[in-house]
Design brief:
alpha+beta, six-stranded antiparallel beta barrel, seven-stranded antiparallel beta sheet, elongated
Length: 592
Amino acid sequence: MIRVFLAVIAFAFTPIGAAAQQSPVWVQVEAQPTLTGAQNRARAFDARLDNVAGYYIGSGWYGIVLGPYTRADADVLLANLRRSGQIPSDSFIADGRNFRQQFWPVGVGAPTTAQPLPTTEPSLEELARAIANTPDLPSDAEDLVVVPVIAPDETPNEARASEAALSRAAKEQLQTALKWAGFYDSAIDGAFGRGTRRSMGEWQVANDYEPTGILTTKQRAELIGAYNAILDGMDLQLVRDDATGIEMVIPTGVVAFDKYEPPFAQFEPKGDLAARVLLISQEGDQDRLFGLYEILQTLAIVPTDGPRRRRDQSFEIEGIGEGIHSYTTATLRNGQIKGFSLIWPTGDEARRIRVLDAMKASFATVDGVLDPAIAAPDDSQAIDLVSGLAVRKPKLSRSGFFVDGQGDVLTTAEAVGECSRITIDEVHDAQVVHTDESLGLAVIRPNTPLAPADVAQFQTGVPRLQSEIAVAGYPYGGVLTTPSLTFGRLADIRGLNGEDELKRLSLTAQPGDAGGPVFDNGGAVLGMLLPRASRNGQQLPPEVSFSVDATRIVASLLLADVRLETTDTVAFLPPESLNQKAVDVTVLVSCW
């Protein structure tokens, strides 16, 4: 069950009911059973009363309070506000021991030390009554025009006094807001030294205030208001998901719970902003944590660019690209792996950073992990999905094969054109080291040398027409985990127009087979399969394919200083041995 029970914007929180000399108290004016209702009522009280705050008070209730004040001042304020009808008659003095997380005011810590009583201004009725009772003035109050008096802003001394009443969390929040606004670049420590004062003065100048270096109450509210305005519509709320055993702040204004797909609880976009949130929860050990780390990087929500960091008991993955900026983290503790992902559209960094900071700061675990059986299989299952999430797929996948002991791979030039990244078997990054456009081939080299189980032996002898041949490849891209053999015959040792560099094959190949080795009966390579293409405007029958002649391949690769193995011996391999040969030398080449 997912429970949304507390808005969290101000993350630092000082225990309110801590014992102290003359512990302050509050006037509790109301309690509401829902967070939204409590926020609305707090906003209404805040428009006409001073020092309004709101706290979760337990048992699903949210309290709206005034203060804190000394007990004597609180008694006076309670009596005055009750008498004037500005607060309910059942309002009472609260000691704050049951105050938990703060939900009002938004974005700044409420004071925790006793505040001075607010200066009371007479109501319009009181002003009219006083004027009506004044000699030499009309007694009819309805004929009076009352001109409101605008209270001046605080003097520097008054601003310093009101600032001194701020909690450390509130001071840190001010430094954070100044840093966000571009005026402060030092430590967030709640200590207002020269650097903080200078940044306050610079902010005041930029906002047409006298540069005193001490922000007044009004200026602090303006700064914090601008800082929090960027989160308008995010509706950050603390969500407790008992199924995953995770409690954290989630931007419920832009995402909503969709479904469980173990090990994930998925929150999908609910508006125009393409944001997503995943909660990660499963039992496991270090091996499973490391496996999750690798699997996540195959998903479309985790682009390949960006920093990665894996430790013994945790990991962090940041993915940037393809219109996405995602952050994923998970930690192993007591046999349970828990974490989260935030997926955000690029170009919205200010909000992404603020939301991510809120999620990191609030992340907490409770008992339980996601039950693997919570989601029954249905028709939405697909091979290119992992727990309901799309696996990142390459732009193009073709076949290739090892041609030397350091892991160099021969493939079709088509497979490596216009790629931002090339991989071997979707795991090993590689670079193009040689191309031959005339023959349509390319050689790619892994960034880290590989030790293949076997390498191709190129047949330099002349093969017999109509002899059996086999092409090894990945006909359906990465759908199959091992290469397949497609059998056929050598129809001609030249192309349709007598081209010596081609061999014509009689076999039906798939697009993914292109770049794969063409074997003779003995496992020697007669050539490399070329992609199907119309020739001279003619669409050839599906059983007509072509390969690049082995001797031409050898000559081209020697120019690239690639050391090859050749043979002119005609041998025979049983099908099972030929199949093993294909598995050992053939690879999947992917263009991303």
